[in-house]
Design brief:
Helices cover about 45% and strands about 15% of the residues. By secondary structure, the protein is an alpha/beta fold. It has a six-stranded mixed β-sheet, with helices on both faces.
Length: about 475
């Protein structure tokens, strides 16, 4: 939503439920982490809005300045004015003063952007181990350590080597909002307008602030993405510089994948590098959620598959690599026309259609969980053979029920999906190996409905489910 109309808090029901459960423990240690802009702070503030809580946001300042700021905040929280004026030079003493002042009371203590404290003092994980074990444990506090540096939170807080390992009672990696959560927040918006917004912003709450399903997306893009003064104009470069080393190599690698080089050998050729040179970069970008490696849904050992293909998994990153980076020379001179013309040609036919496939996979999982489709997916993915001649968008295997699901997505701007698309799916399904006795369940995903003939043919076949705008039309 545009900045002048502040977006309400969206989704996060499951995450809030977990935090409430930890709160009810009476004493808990929660580790919350996730990429920047994903809504960690908003979630925490929503959780503590009706609770006795001390929220502290660490900064990139020195350790001494962070100590003094926390002491100042703690003085207001505890009512101990001496803390505001005393020279505090030890974290243990400060946390003990907070614990003593709140003895016997249930409260929340949040340290947001904990990695900044680690950067200032590498001993912070050991210090917090002591604080939890000797000062806070058993006092009725719910301690939340939060951070945006995914790699540092994993290495310094969650890993076996961390002094804090084994202390947490819960951990949560906050991910972007699902399409279903965004859709539920805007019940009056059209499916098509939501698809446009989600294809650009994904489920990242901060990005969603700049787009509204009911407004002209073109104008929002001009103001916030294509303008050199726009908040999101340099966003991918900023994120990569914050999270990774070798920003230029990571950016080049992402661009290679965005342009269709999905095998490691193809990326190496594109970048004129050895395949072995790319391993660490691919691992980092995958861990951060910018890339994902997909394998056919029926691979028995997907992690060892030689049939894996890489895709840019972050929606805004893909949009930026497609419509901003290639035209930065023109954009720097205030000329948006080449970028806008490229969007007119391919945005809906390429990017939105591709995003519809990803959302349809999420939809399949939701419909199966709700019992709207009689299928229990063990794994959901796509399918392609080595020749590349047979591809299916959304497939799944039900190992318990002994059945496959084979589906196609059709994102047409106007016309409904017809009998021809169903026949094409039937032909493709014959080429997919079926290890089960049961015939596969077939699915067609559309947002413009289905023709009468397609509905009748599906009913006659008996093993076809039609999904329109993420809802089962017939089965």
């Amino acid at each position: 939503m545009s900045p002048q109309h502040q977006k309400p808090f969206i989704g996060r029901a499951a995450e809030l439920s977990v935090l409430e459960e930890e709160w009810r423990r009476g004493n808990a240690f929660v580790v919350l982490y996730g990429r920047r802009r994903v809504g960690k702070t908003a979630l925490i503030k929503r959780f503590i809005q009706d609770k006795d809580a001390l929220y502290f946001l660490a900064s990139k300042e020195s350790e001494e300045l962070n100590l003094q700021r926390l002491a100042h905040d703690a003085a207001a929280f505890t009512g101990n004015e001496l803390l505001a004026h005393a020279h505090v030079d030890d974290w243990r003493t400060l946390f003990k003063a907070i614990a003593d002042a709140r003895a016997g009371r249930h409260y929340v203590l949040v340290i947001d952007e904990f990695p900044y404290l680690i950067s200032a003092n590498r001993a912070m994980p050991s210090i917090m181990q002591y604080v939890w074990d000797e000062v806070l444990a058993g006092t009725g506090v719910t301690l939340i350590l939060c951070g945006s540096s995914v790699s540092m939170m994993r290495d310094e807080v969650l890993s076996h080597e961390s002094p804090l390992y084994g202390r947490r009672t819960s951990q949560m990696r906050l991910k972007p909002l699902s399409f279903a959560e965004v859709e539920a927040a805007f019940p009056e918006a059209s499916f098509e307008s939501l698809m446009d917004v989600y294809t650009v912003a994904g489920g990242v709450p901060k990005y969603l602030e700049f787009f509204s399903p009911g407004e002209d997306i073109g104008e929002s893009l001009r103001r916030n993405v294509l303008s050199t003064t726009g908040f999101l104009y340099e966003e991918p470069e900023f994120l990569l510089s914050e999270e990774t080393r070798g920003t230029s190599t990571n950016l080049s690698l992402l661009r290679a994948v965005a342009q269709g080089n999905r095998k490691v050998s193809e990326m190496a050729n594109f970048l004129r590098r050895r395949t072995s040179d790319l391993t660490s970069y691919l691992s980092a970008l995958t861990s951060l959620g910018f890339l994902e490696r997909r394998t056919p849904f029926n691979e028995k050992y997907p992690e060892r598959s030689k049939n894996g293909l890489y895709h840019v998994s972050d929606e805004f990153m893909l949009f930026w690599l497609t419509y901003v980076q290639p035209f930065q020379g023109e954009l720097e001179m205030g000329n948006m026309r080449p970028s806008l013309e490229a969007m007119d040609r391919t945005f809906r036919s390429s990017l939105v259609a591709r995003e519809f496939e990803r959302i349809s996979a999420q939809t399949l999982a939701l419909l199966c969980a709700a019992g709207d489709i009689d299928f229990v997916p063990s794994r959901i993915g796509g399918y392609w053979d080595r020749s590349g001649r047979v591809e299916l968008d959304v497939c799944a295997v039900d190992n318990v029920g002994g059945r496959n699901f084979l589906g196609e997505c059709k994102y047409y701007e106007r016309r409904p999906v017809g009998e021809a698309e169903l026949e094409n799916l039937l032909n493709k399904a014959k080429a997919v190996p079926n290890p089960f006795d049961a015939q596969p369940l077939l699915g067609l995903f559309s947002h413009t409905g289905f023709t009468v003939k397609a509905v009748g043919r599906a009913a006659d076949l008996g093993n076809v489910v039609l999904i329109d705008k993420n809802r089962v039309m017939s089965a």
